[in-house]
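ok here's TLC domain-containing protein, seq below lol
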Amino acid sequence: MNEDIKLIILLGVCSYIIDIYSGKNTYYKSCYNKYNVQIELLIHHILNIYAQFGWLSNNKILLQGYVISCIILLCHWNANNDRCILTEKINKKCNIPIEKPFRDILYAIGFKHLKYYNILHRIYIFVTGIIALYKLSKL
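and the structure came out like this:
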């Protein structure tokens, strides 16, 4: 398995652990023991790490997937009022208000509390998608 993939999975697992244990008795109280929900949440964290940092890879397949995921993600956010369908699905299963954000690494370090977070995040995804395209042209 590619080292970049291993790192994405490892960081995704770390992000999941931080999220689940910081909200075990409050945020995720109603779904802490629902293993199917926990697996979905873990996958969401891994996908999120890829969406945030996949552009750093030099693996051609990961970069191609990253560019495609940027396009899909930006279109999805545009069609769904800056909401992620995975977040909404997990929030519903955990009895968390639908407007509550995904508690990813950006949430943990406080970025999601910024006034212009949504537009900044869209710009970040767009720019990193362009960087990934540039890197692909050089491979």
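fwiw Residues 3-138 form one domain. kinda neat tbh
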